[in-house]
Task: inverse folding
């Protein structure tokens, strides 16, 4: 393994020509750090050809490359084992093709998502990929990070509307998959592997999407319920009704605080009551449809003991709430110190049980807990590993950390689900990722083969986490009550470990 | 045959046959030529006879068969009902064929989570039949849905008329159990569907049986819509009908289906099915909208208006389920109807950007005239998925060659205007030689690496997807008719040496 030496920098500059876009200043490189690891060099190609040239150069010099966009979701990327060159793709922001009449668009990976949607909006269209850090995220980064959008309830995930891609493999070859027509089974769907790949497989240079007509007039519905069973029962009824809302989420009170104080008094948002659970839905249509939604949603909510119910028909207020929902990951990262954010993907009918168990785990360990349970299956869970006023450092081997991860994993597995780490303090990130990757055990061998097909030289980082720390003794993994600190917890200090920390590897 | 090495080594085949007869009962293994000949066709114009056919009943048996074949160095492939239209389930270089008709059980119905877990041999429509009383259906609806199996649908990423709004097979599959060419059994995906790592399910769906054999599929069940409206719009010309489709798309209206039948084709169909298509029309559009009652009412009114703006002489709304079923029966049996008037039918499958529909249909007519064919069109207009139909006489080799040339010309045009080689039938052996129209050598090298990551010896479904010379294991394959227009069309292969059933 080699690092970027001065002479390598010089050689790369000569490869890229006179208007070198190669930057090696320390201050700039800091911006590209992943989990505190700073790249030795930074390259910002102005074309896919140039990006491919850089990758070929890196392959020849055995330099590791990490493709980046607007850097808004690097916190979610796997911790790199080595990081020589940050490949900044934000200059690849061209519109290669947009034919509104076909509802298809083909754009450079560096195109900001917001800018893309501004362009589509002029034609009354949009891309229903409303991911966190939306205002500056690039489309390539949004695909690579694979985070979901509340709108998936109506439009599906990127997998459903990504039609094709052009990318650079680990040999520096520019390749493609799919196309730009809405129906296509020519060749393998390799572009779909890029979703959630975090730059571990290839450098995405161009993406082709199906676009959608903007929804008609949109309204929202917010109702408070006495507990998670009632709120999720209402959601279940909506799922199995003729209604097809754009978004459909159930939030506990901690999560519903994302809605607090954001409408400047324009909307009738209730005070969030800590004992309640909330159901939030957005829906659109003509007058007759909106009336139907209002009527049916209220009826269903009432059957499930809803207290407060609000129809949100002020477009400004509703848009503000939708933004908050879209940005929930960002919100949790800002408001929870040492936040741990996990996506738990399991069939929706099991969310009631999952919510019960999660509350019990968090209650026993005295951890705050925010839950957003999306109708199509994923539950976003956020907690803070430090209670307020505590300055104790979170250690990678802190039992509270690994036990929480193990409880979540065990919960996911009991329903054939998966857990994915979205965000965690750097110190515990690798251990969480390793634990969660156990839920993917059967796929890891296949994933390794994919990785070496895309990236034979191991130029790009790896998604596969290092080996998991050993499983703690069985008595500690379940039931959740085992997390209860001994003695009974105090409010202002981190829960004391129930047992000595398990030994860790490396 | 000269130039074509004999397909699998005869003594290895004999050993494998004996081994299979030892492990499986006699009805599960076919090795006599008169039995094998039934498996040399599918719905395409291609041929390829297997040397052995085995009917596994369980995943463990699939794994055992695959291991045995690997031990004897015999290529294998999977097959469902054999309705495919691109030769995907044909033994291009002989070998062992696993036919999944005995693995036809629905293993789990989970209505709460809207999922079904099924074996690969379950017939597409049987999923819907099993769940419709509970208010659900399985959305992908290829015309072959009465006989095609879910395993084949997964392999080819099958579509259908209603995929315009609801998506193709890949959008409705959340998990798979697979047997790799080594015999290893693996699972990808989950019941809910989010991958939480690489989306391997998305890779295997549509990989045309070249990466793994599918032994179990978890599918989404869709809720039956509250309201459906089926409209038949009648036009004097194909141009008016295709302008209408382009306009509906451009205005952002997404019907659940938008099918076009040209006048010539619909007359042939009407003669057979009596679906009620007007015999003197130039083209009809079969349109469907579904969803909430209020939305359906508004959408069908908008569609009606657009049709009339493009000179539809009549827009008929099906009054009841019976009339709706009849309108669809005509569409879904169109290829059968055409089969009554010609001994050879070649159903093409190309995709174009939807806005280019009018010019493409005109170009298809020109190509037909140039090559001396009347080319019919019955297709998924809403998503730009064309199915031009070329009728020919199977006894006339020269005509067959011309039909293939005309077809390649049409597909070339699709690619030229920004489209693709296939929308739902797959590449198989039908279009492997056309792949270079879209993909570069670098693309093939890359795809080949992915292929080899799972199927390194090309022991699984060899000779598919990749053009000869870009894939692997093609040394024993015969040249393809599209490329070699002067050679014999799909020459009848000599029957493999009979293997005594022991």
Result:
């Amino acid at each position: 393994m080699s690092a970027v030496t001065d002479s390598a920098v010089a050689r790369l500059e000569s490869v890229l020509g006179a208007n070198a876009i190669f930057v090696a200043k320390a201050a700039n490189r800091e911006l590209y750090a992943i989990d505190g690891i700073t790249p030795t060099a930074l390259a910002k190609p102005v074309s896919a050809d140039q990006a491919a040239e850089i990758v070929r150069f890196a392959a020849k010099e055995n330099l590791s490359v990490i493709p980046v966009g607007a850097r808004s979701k690097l916190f979610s990327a796997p911790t790199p084992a080595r990081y020589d060159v940050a490949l900044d793709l934000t200059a690849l922001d061209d519109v290669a093709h947009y034919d509104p009449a076909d509802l298809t668009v083909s754009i450079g990976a560096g195109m900001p998502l917001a800018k893309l949607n501004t362009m589509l909006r002029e034609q009354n269209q949009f891309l229903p990929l409303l991911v966190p850090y939306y205002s500056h995220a690039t489309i390539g980064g949004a695909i690579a990070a694979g985070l979901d959008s509340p709108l998936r309830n109506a439009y599906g995930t990127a997998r459903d509307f990504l039609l094709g891609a052009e990318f650079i493999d680990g040999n520096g070859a520019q390749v493609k998959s799919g196309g730009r027509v809405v129906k296509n089974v020519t060749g393998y769907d390799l572009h779909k592997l890029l979703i959630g790949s975090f730059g571990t497989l290839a450098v995405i240079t161009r993406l082709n999407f199906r676009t959608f007509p903007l929804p008609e007039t949109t309204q929202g519905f917010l109702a408070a319920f006495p507990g998670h069973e009632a709120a999720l029962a209402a959601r279940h009824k909506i799922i199995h009704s003729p209604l097809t809302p754009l978004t459909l989420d159930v939030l506990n009170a901690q999560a519903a605080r994302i809605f607090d104080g954001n409408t400047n008094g324009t909307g009738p948002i209730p005070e969030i009551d800590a004992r309640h659970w909330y159901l939030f839905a957005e829906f659109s249509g003509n007058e007759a449809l909106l009336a139907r939604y209002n009527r049916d949603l209220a009826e269903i909510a009432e059957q499930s003991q809803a207290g407060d119910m609000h129809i949100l028909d002020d477009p400004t207020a509703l848009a503000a709430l939708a933004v908050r929902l879209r940005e929930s990951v960002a919100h949790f990262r800002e408001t929870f110190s040492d936040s741990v954010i996990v996506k738990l993907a399991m069939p929706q009918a099991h969310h009631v049980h999952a919510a019960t168990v999660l509350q019990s785990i968090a209650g026993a360990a005295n951890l705050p807990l925010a839950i957003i349970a999306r109708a199509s299956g994923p539950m976003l869970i956020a907690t803070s590993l430090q209670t307020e006023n505590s300055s104790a450092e979170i250690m990678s081997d802190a039992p509270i950390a690994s036990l929480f991860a193990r409880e979540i994993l065990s919960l996911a597995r009991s329903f054939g689900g998966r857990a994915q780490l979205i965000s965690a303090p750097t110190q515990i990130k690798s251990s969480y990722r390793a634990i969660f990757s156990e839920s993917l055990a059967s796929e890891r061998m296949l994933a390794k083969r994919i990785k070496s097909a895309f990236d034979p030289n191991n130029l790009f980082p790896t998604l596969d986490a290092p080996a998991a720390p050993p499983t703690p003794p069985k008595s500690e993994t379940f039931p959740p009550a085992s997390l209860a600190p001994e003695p009974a917890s105090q409010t202002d200090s981190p829960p004391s470990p129930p047992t000595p920390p398990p030994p860790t590897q490396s | 045959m000269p130039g074509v090495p004999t397909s699998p080594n005869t003594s290895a085949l004999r050993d494998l046959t004996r081994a299979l007869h030892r492990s499986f009962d006699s009805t599960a293994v076919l090795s006599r030529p008169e039995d094998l000949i039934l498996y040399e066709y599918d719905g395409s114009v291609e041929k390829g006879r297997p040397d052995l056919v085995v009917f596994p009943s369980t995943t463990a048996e699939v794994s055992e068969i695959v291991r045995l074949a690997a031990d004897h160095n015999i290529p294998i492939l999977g097959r469902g009902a054999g309705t495919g239209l691109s030769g995907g389930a044909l033994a291009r270089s002989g070998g062992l064929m696993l036919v999944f008709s005995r693995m036809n059980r629905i293993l789990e119905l989970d209505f709460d989570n809207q999922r079904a877990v099924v074996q690969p041999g379950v017939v597409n429509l049987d999923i819907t039949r099993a769940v419709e009383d509970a208010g659900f259906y399985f959305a992908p609806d290829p015309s072959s849905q009465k006989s095609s199996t879910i395993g084949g649908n997964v392999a080819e990423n099958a579509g259908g008329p209603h995929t315009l709004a609801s998506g193709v097979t890949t959008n409705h599959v959340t998990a798979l159990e697979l047997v790799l060419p080594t015999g290893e059994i693996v699972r990808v995906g989950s019941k809910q569907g989010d991958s939480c790592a690489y989306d391997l399910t998305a890779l295997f769906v549509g990989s045309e049986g070249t990466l793994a054999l599918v032994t179990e599929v978890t599918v989404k069940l869709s809720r039956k819509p509250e309201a459906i409206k089926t409209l038949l719009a009648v036009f004097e010309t194909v141009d008016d009908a295709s302008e209408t489709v382009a306009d509906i798309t451009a205005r952002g209206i997404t019907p659940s289906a938008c099918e076009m039948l040209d006048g010539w084709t619909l007359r042939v169909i009407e003669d057979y099915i009596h679906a009620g298509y007007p015999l003197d029309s130039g083209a009809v559009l079969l349109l469907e909208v579904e969803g909430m009652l209020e939305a359906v009412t508004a959408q069908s009114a908008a569609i009606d208006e657009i049709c009339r703006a493009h000179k539809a002489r009549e827009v008929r709304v099906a009054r009841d389920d019976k009339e709706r079923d009849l309108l669809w029966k005509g569409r879904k049996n169109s290829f059968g109807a055409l089969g009554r008037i010609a001994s050879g039918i070649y159903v093409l499958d190309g995709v174009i950007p939807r806005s280019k529909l009018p010019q493409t249909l005109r170009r298809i007519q020109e190509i037909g005239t140039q090559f001396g064919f009347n080319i019919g069109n019955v297709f998924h207009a809403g998503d730009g998925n064309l199915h031009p139909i070329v009728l020919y006489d199977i006894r006339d080799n020269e005509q067959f060659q011309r039909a293939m040339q005309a077809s390649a010309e049409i597909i070339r045009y699709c690619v030229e205007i920004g489209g693709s080689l296939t929308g739902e039938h797959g590449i198989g052996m039908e279009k492997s030689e056309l792949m270079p129209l879209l993909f570069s050598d670098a693309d093939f090298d890359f795809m080949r690496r992915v292929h080899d990551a799972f199927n390194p010896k090309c022991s699984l479904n060899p000779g598919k997807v990749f053009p000869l010379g870009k894939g692997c294991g093609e040394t024993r394959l015969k040249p393809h008719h599209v490329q070699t227009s002067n050679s014999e069309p799909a020459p009848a292969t000599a029957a493999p040496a009979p293997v005594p059933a022991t």
Chain A touches chain B through 84 residues (CB under 8 Å). Residues 65 and 85 of chain A are 5 Å apart (CA to CA). Chain A has a mean pLDDT of 86. The longest strand of chain A covers residues 203-210.
